[in-house]
Each structure stands twice: as C-alpha cells, then as structure tokens.
Amino acid sequence: MRVVIESSDRIGISQEILAIFAKQAWNLKAVEITSCFTYVHVEYDALTLPLIRECLASIVGLNSVEAINLLPSEQRESHLQALLDKMPEPIIDVDSNGLILAMNKASHKLKPSVEPVLIATDYLGKPIETFISQINQAMLTNTATSQAVTIQGKAYILDISPVLTNNSSAVEQDKTGQVSGSVLLFRSMNTLGRQISLMQSHQEHSFDNIIGQSKSISLIKAQSKRFAELDLPVLISGETGTGKELIARALHQASSRAKAPFLAINCSALPEHLLESELFGYASGAFTGAQKGGKPGLIELAEGGCLFLDEIAEMSSYLQAKLLRFLQDLTYRRVGGTKELIANIRIISASHQNLAKLISQKIFREDLYYRLNVLSIELPPLRDRMTDMSLLANLFIENAAKQVSNSQQTEITKPKLTEQALSLLQDFSWPGNIRQLQNVLFSVVALNNGDDICADDLLQVLNKHAGNQQLSNDTGIQTIKDWSTAQAEFEAKLLEHLHPLFPTTRKLAERLNVSHNKIAMKLREHGIK
C-alpha cells in the first residue's frame, strides 16, 4: 500500500511517523519526504488505511492520511517511460559502467525477431553488450560521439551523449572526465533522410504549385499524375529553368512514397570521387580523412523514398557504370565496403541536354539511358507557353513583393503589370525560361517605387539579361523612310536578337516557322554571321 501523510511543517514530525511504522513492524519498501508531506510504500498483509490513521492519530500536527497509486518518484519514472516509449527511435540509458538503466519500446526492435517477446526488465542492470554486441563500455567516453552501426542488417547512426554528474560546463567536463552515464540514440537512415529532405525544401510540393493553364502544361500535369502512381524510374528533360525539380517533387508528393524522404543532388556540382561517396556512402577507413564508422550515402538515406539525380548527363563514365549496376537489382556497396546493401528507392533523373545526341557521341551510356527512361516527361520552354505569362508574372511579382517587404520590414503594395509590360514579357525569348523570368521580375519589384510596372521599367532590367541584344520601347516611326527600308530594319533587328539564342539556321527557322534556306539567305543579306 502507498499512502501520503500531510502534516504541519514541524521539526521531527517525519521521524515520529516513521517510528510508529517501525514499532508496528510494517515493512517499509520506500519513503519520500518533502515539506509537509511524507510518502510511504509499505507492505503488510492486514494493513488498511483506517488502521494507519488510527496508529498515527496521536501525532501532533497530522492533517490527513490518504492512499495513492504511485510515489512521486514512481510517477515521474512512469511519465518519463511513457515519453520515451512515444519516441520512434531506439533510446537506451546506461550508467558509467555501461549497465542498462532504461530503454524505450522502440529499442526492442534491435533484438533478433527469432527471440521470444522481449521483456525489457530482463536487461535492466545488465551490460549493454548483452543487449547489443556491437556496443561496449569503451565506446562510452566523456565526449559526445556519432558513428554508423549496423544492427540486424539495418543501418543506424548511433549518437552517444554523456550525462554529467553536475552542472559543470563542457570545458570542466573535459578536464575532469567524470560522467554518470550515457544516453544512446539510434537514428535510422529513413529518419535522417526525412530530416535532410526537410532541410532541402521547407515547403510542400504538389501539382497545384505548378502554375499554368496552357495546353502543354495541362498535358504535362495530367501525364505526371499518372506517372506518380507507377513506382518506376522517370526521366525529365527540358531546357534550363523549366522547372524539372518542381515536377520531380510533385511526382514524389503524389506517390505512395510521399511520407518518405525526397533527396536531390546535382551531378554536375561535385567531382567524381565526391559524387560517388555522396551517392553510395563510404565505409570506415575507406580513405584518408574518412569519418569514423563510415558515412551513409543518399541512396541509403532516401530509404523508402525518392532520389532525384539532376543533370544526369554530367555524370562520369565510371559512375554511369556503377549507377547502371545499382539499377539492375538495387544492390550496392559503400565505397571501401564489402557488405552488400539493398535499397528501396525510386529514381527520378533530369537533364537539359540531348541525351540521344550524347549517346551517339559515346558520352552517355545507352544501356543506362534505357534504365532511366522507363517513363519520360519533356517540359516545354517558356517561349512555347506564352499564354501562361500573365499567371506566372503575377505570381512572381506577388512573391517578390512579399520578400522585399520581409527584408525591409515594411509592407509594400504589390505593383501591377501594365498591358505594354506584359506584351514586352511575351515578346522576349527567355533563354533562361521560368527561372530567368522570376529573377527579372524580382529585380523590377526591388527597384519599384510603388508605381505600376511599365514597359520602360522592364526594358532596363531586360537589357541586362539580354546581354548584347538591346531591346527598345521606341518604335521609331518618325525615322521610317519607306516600307522596304522599315521591313529590312525590322528583319535585321529580329535576326540580331534571335540568332544568338538559336545559333543554327535550322533552329532559328523552327523558331520563326520558315524554311532554313530563307533564314540563311536573310542572314547573308544583313551580314549576320
């Protein structure tokens, strides 16, 4: 039976209470004393609450005696255990000798499935090695460490955090080296992957975030929604700045893997050896400077989710061959490792280059192309979806106004786009596509003084983005001599503007919807090389 005895704050009253319990020869299992309260856990077969009250009635200052379910320390321990059991990752608390003090329910999965139902109390007070053979007391130092461990064929990052015996600072801890124990946290690769995924992007990505009502974009969204249901590799092609990663994230968000990590890497951003270790990870001691315990790669961290390989055409021949080997059966080894690992991920790749041309030039592997190109999506350039310009421009202006307001800590009114300015945006070729449009409009909003965005405001920024292709809002009507001269001047300016963006006669002819022979003739006529 557990009881709480409330009394006045009188010196010696607790000793009087305990003396009566001893006189009655009642077995005291635990006693806790605070100001005005004495908590007692007592065992006696014939013990009742009225009997306890009767025996204690003679004590001066006694207020009440009530039965309770748990002592304060037991209640705290129960709440702490409930909190630990809610944690999805295994947590084990050990003392300075490596003996287990507590563990949560998630830690039970660290034992073999063939073992009978785990009873955690069977391991309390026993060395940590008896529960997990990969861990020993030598690993429990006075400094926090992290290392990769594999338990029952599953990889974890083990964080070992020392528990200080007092409120000493970290500097004092290093001097004394005294700790009362350690807390072991086992983070699964899936959990790490989700954390990295959130760091890469802080917002949700769905097909609703893809702005556009043009026929081409509507078709892309409908096609992508169907592909999201199929757990197969997808290859996304399109010019730079057309939103390939946005489509990839929307595909993942609409798939059955949506709750698992989405990790992205640009294959052109890292040299070969770094890209290899980033993708496949490395084993302990794989190379000079390698992290102790090894390091998981993105393939391992994306477990259950999706890995987006941007600019796949930039991958070296060696890594192309290694990626092909991985795609055949989704098995791989860490760099410098010997253990065969299995991945459960979906691969989405993207490139702005013509992979068919690279295959013919023996730069990109044809067999890898067919592995990646099971499902394909080709994104249209911005110049082929000018009907979406108004929607895109208004969205980017609104976002830019919010960013400027946040940075200046002053609310600014969203500027409006005049019809002439919108026409100018629709007439520009946008070699950088949507990304370039977004940057241009951000610059315009940042320079805006609260007025509507007119054509002249855009010209100032667009001319910087056009390089040598200077644009003008002056029609020059007063200087026109005759029809043929005006037509020739217009042709020359048009060709000078578009030819750097479409450097071959065939591409330029396709852009202007005429024969390439006519383009070649006009280039010669106006002396454009």
UniProtKB/TrEMBL annotation:
Keyword line: Aromatic hydrocarbons catabolism, ATP-binding, Cytoplasm, DNA-binding, Nucleotide-binding, Repressor, Transcription, Transcription regulation
Xref: SMART domains: AAA
Pfam families according to UniProt: AAA_lid_14 (PF25601), Sigma54_activat (PF00158)
CDD domains, sorted: AAA (cd00009)
UniProt KW ATP-binding keyword: yes
Places the protein is found: Cytoplasm
One Gene Ontology CC term in the entry: cytoplasm
Single annotated GO MF: DNA binding
Chain ranges of the Sigma-54 factor interaction domain: 210-446
Annotated InterPro entries: AAA+_ATPase (IPR003593), AAA_lid_NorR (IPR058031), Homeodomain-like_sf (IPR009057), HTH_TyrR (IPR030828), P-loop_NTPase (IPR027417), Sigma_54_int (IPR002078), Sigma_54_int_dom_ATP-bd_1 (IPR025662), Sigma_54_int_dom_CS (IPR025944)
Protein name according to UniProt: HTH-type transcriptional regulatory protein TyrR
Source organism of the structure: Colwellia psychrerythraea (Vibrio psychroerythus)
